Amino acid sequence: MAFKHFGINVPDAVAMAKWYVENLDMNIVCSTDSPPYTHFLADSTSRTIIKIYSNPNDPIPGYSAQHHLRSQIAFATNDPCAIKEKLIKAGASLVLDETTEDGSQVITLRDPWNIPFQLAKRTLGKEDKDGESKDRGRDLVLIQSEAAVLYVSLEETLAELDSIKYGPCPENLVELTMARAKKKKPCPRCMKENTMKSESSFWHRLFGLPKTFLIILVIILACILALINFASEISDFFR
């Protein structure tokens, strides 16, 4: 099972998608031009992570009245301070700028629709407490776009190996392999190829000889044919 996306009902999905693309390095994977104006957004690694829509069937949450800890979107970045200033100029508002005990920097902001999001620069610790070190290492990799694409591709490829069940190697593995090889029937295609190879081996050896030798051989054969013809003519003459 793999994460697909996180859906959010927002006041203006079209404008929000445009803002996230222009300011948070996201891409619109697909969208609809009619209500509820659904947009699927992918990050810089091409992973689709957010689905936003403006659906009146459920009241739009009052994001401005909600605490920023209720829900948030987080982005890994190598320079959160510089990006923070850029986003504030683009209409975001600062909520919290803090440095954690391990030295990680986490900046919480609200977008123009008051939806909380974070900019995080994690510090990789020496100890792995509840898997935090693994998450921090992944965040550091995702900062670089090329490394992030490679990481995501490798992660998806290796995920298929999780279904493999490992078992102890039998002590008589060699004997079992040899027995299976003896019982295996020869491949008809392989037999045909071997036959063709044996038939062509004579000609391969013949034409693989030096050119000088072949010329001499042709001359000798020509002389023999000439002698045979000459002997045949003499025989006809004395009859």
Quick summary of this structure?
With 239 residues, the chain is α/β, with parallel strands linked by helices.
Can you put this structure into words, describing what you see?
The chain is α/β, with parallel strands linked by helices and 239 residues long. The chain has seven helices and eight strands; from the N terminus they run E-H-E-E-E-E-H-E-E-E-H-H-H-H-H. It folds into two domains: 157 residues, 2,3-Dihydroxybiphenyl 1,2-Dioxygenase, domain 1; 51 residues, no CATH class. The strands form two sheets. It has a four-stranded mixed sheet with strand order 1-4-3-2, with helices on one face. A four-stranded mixed sheet has the order 5-8-7-6. A hairpin with a 5-residue loop joins strand 7 and strand 8. Helix 3 packs across helix 4. The longest helix has 27 residues. The mean pLDDT is 78.
Key features?
2 domains, 7 helices, alpha/beta, 2,3-Dihydroxybiphenyl 1,2-Dioxygenase, domain 1, four-stranded mixed sheet, 239 residues, 44% helix
